[in-house]
Amino acid sequence: MTDHLIPHIDIALRHASPGSTITPIPRLEISMGQATTGKAPCLYRSMICFILQGSKHVAINDELLSYDPAHYLISALDLPLIGQILDADKSRPYIAVSLDLDPAILADVASTMPQVRDTDPAGIGIAINPMTAPLRDTLLRLLSLLDTPADIPVLAPMAERELLYRLLQGPQGRLLRQIAQPEGALGRIRRAVAWIRDNHNTRLRIEALCNASGMSRASLHRHFLAMTGLSPLQYQKQLRLQEARQLLLAGDHSASDVAFAVGYESASQFSREYFRQFGAPPVRDVRQIRQTIGSPAMG
User: Fold this and answer.
1) Sequence-ordered list of residues with C-beta below 8 angstroms from that of 79, at least 6 positions apart, any chain
2) For 166, what's the count of Cα atoms within 13 Å in the CB-facing half-sphere?
3) How many Å apart are CA 126 and CA 60, to the nearest integer?
4) In this predicted model, what pLDDT tens digit does every residue of 79-101 receive, in sequence order?
5) H-helix or E-strand containing 150?
6) CA 28/CA 47 separation, integer angstroms
7) Which fold has domain 3-179?
8) Long-range CB contacts (< 8 A, 24+ apart) of 55-59?
9) Taking the mean position of all CA atoms in its chain, how far away is CA 63?
10) Share above pLDDT 90 across residues of the chain, in percent, rounded to a whole number
11) Potential cystine with 73: which of 44, 49, 162, 283 (Cβ 3.0-4.6 Å)?
């Protein structure tokens, strides 16, 4: 499988740098890691992810998922996970390509295909499946446009639609169709997640979540837990802590300022929860991250 991905890897290496690179192709990002990492909290967007080189473990709740160049991952909604990059070094970096999912484009592609009667998804909103030759070939056509940027406005939408078509034909077609259906259970939970994301620094109000999702309290709690592995309150806490870490890494705020900015009413509570989540107090954690990536230490 890796030999088949050599052209993909060559393109990625030409157009990406260590870390995350946002490409000129809409919603397409290339991630590159030059070392195996420890387990670290991360936020997966609603996306498809293809690993070109290396491998990765992701844990959600008590479930551990592993994927590599022989597999692709679909995340149906924004999910806080624990991630770990494996099999990576400077001579052979971890390389992954992700495409954020647009429900409107998914719905349009699905509408051209034979209708299928789906039931609501019963499990977590993330899945891993084997890579196929048609998917690999379509992905290469999409990535190749990075070498001819003038072609992106016309050809990238065509390549994306073909990629989604192939995925809709695959074992996770039902999950993707649910993303395109705003009134299904997954669509309603996606609206609840969006509300929490947009209001993560305010007190969580279950009534507002029920209104945003169009669900009763009991239905909201049951489906939210099933699809994210977390309660709404736990989900909000994960978002707050991840946002706090990003603000601290930006280097323009103190830990107490960040605590209040993301919605905590107590700086000491923030420090305790940050330590439980990331394994170190805020200032030390950020200093360690900067030392790892070679940035100046926090002053």
Assistant:
1) 43, 44, 60, 125, 126, 228, 229
2) 18
3) 9
4) 888 888 998 888 999 999 999 99
5) none
6) 10
7) Jelly Rolls (2.60.120)
8) 55/85, 55/86, 55/87, 55/94, 56/83, 56/84, 56/85, 56/86, 56/94, 56/96, 57/83, 57/84, 57/86, 58/82, 58/83, 58/84, 58/126, 59/83
9) 17
10) 55
11) 49
pTM over 0.90: no
Among all chains, which residue has been given the structure tokens 């989540």? 277
Residue 291: what are its φ and ψ, rounded to 5°? -65, -35
Which helix or strand (DSSP H or E) is residue 227 part of?
A: helix 217-228
**Residues contacting residue 34 through CB under 8 Å, at least 6 positions apart:** 18, 88, 89, 90, 93, 94
pLDDT at 149 over 60: yes
Structure tokens at 298: 């926090």
Q: Is 110 buried (19+), middle (13-18) or exposed (0-12) by CB count in 10 A?
A: buried
What are the boundaries of each domain within the chain?
Answer: 3-179, 185-230, 242-293
DSSP symbol at 4: G
- The single-letter DSSP state of residue 130 is E
Q: What's the CA gap between 52 and 154, in Å, rounded?
A: 25
